[in-house]
Amino acid sequence: MEKTLILIKPNAIQRGLIGDIVTRFERKGLRFVGMKMLFMTDEIVNEHYAHLKNRPFFPYLKASMQAAPIIACCIEGAEAVDTVRLLVGATNSRKALPGTIRGDFSMSGEQNVVHASDSVENALIEIDRFFAPGELFDYESAVTRFEYGGEESQKFM
Ligand code: UDP
Ligand code: MG
User: Fold this and answer.
1) Which of 2, 20, 41, 68 suits 13 as a labelling partner, its CA being 20 to 30 A distant?
2) Which numbered ligand comes closest to the C-alpha of 93?
3) What is the pLDDT of residue 88?
4) Greatest CA separation found in the chain?
5) By the 8 A CB rule, do 75 and 33 touch?
6) What CATH architecture does domain 2-156 belong to?
7) Is 32 exposed, middle or buried (0-12, 13-18, 19+ CB in 10 A)?
8) Can you give the residue ranges of every domain in the chain?
9) CB 8 within 8 A of CB 21
10) Distances in Å between the alpha carbon of 4 and those of 14, 28, 85?
11) What is the DSSP letter of 99?
């Protein structure tokens, strides 16, 4: 099944939102297949946000991602990349719709509680950035047949 990467950002760790964020993904029916806490080094931040390195806000973004540990999570589900982006909401949390994670838990365009991969291609690269193969877990789900229809199971699993 499709996998994507989320990072629970330092601001969410500081604000005690780990449980709320994890719950949002679990309630939706997405499955956690990898999870780890780490500090983002200069090298990892520079690589992860390379597309933004020339933006004026980059130094602030970098400092914000190193202000506390993060929790990297690999989560799985049918069309997980797009589904997770919808759940996470717009980059600027003030414009993110209520009901989305950013819309419900943040007021900021920078301190916006979570990162989520923006394409299937980037998800593969980002999962590799944070997880060694042995740190991802493939396990039987007892409830998949109650979460997806028969046609979806054929198509996505
Ligand atoms: N960011 C910021 N100011 C901006 C745009 C982005 O501080 O004007 C930060 C914000 O934390 C965002 C991250 O840079 O989550 C990565 O930006 P991107 O455009 O990739 O947004 P995302 O994919 O996180 O929604
Ligand atoms: Mg992005």
Assistant:
1) 2
2) 1
3) 99
4) 49
5) yes
6) 2-Layer Sandwich (3.30)
7) middle
8) 2-156
9) yes
10) 24, 14, 10
11) T
For residue 141, the model assigns a pLDDT of 87
Provide the token pair at 143.
Answer: 């409830």
Strand intervals (E) in the chain: 3-8, 31-38, 70-76, 114-116
Q: Return the best residue to mutate from 46, 52, 86, 95 for the ligand 1 pocket (most ligand atoms within 8 A of CB).
A: 52
Q: Report the amino acid identity of residue 125.
A: I
- Which atom of ligand 1 lies nearest, measured to the CA of 111? 11
**Whose CA is closest to 25, among 77, 66, 79?**
77
Q: Rounded to 5 degrees, what are φ and ψ at 90?
A: -60, 150
Q: Say which ligand is closest to the CA of 61.
A: 1
Name residue 17's amino acid. L
For residues 64 and 9, the answer to whether their CB atoms sit within 8 Å is: yes
Residue numbers of the chain with a pLDDT score lower than 70:
none
List residues near ligand 1 (CB under 6 A).
Answer: 52, 57, 61, 91, 109-110, 112, 115, 118
Give nearest CA residue, ligand 1 atom 3.
Answer: 110
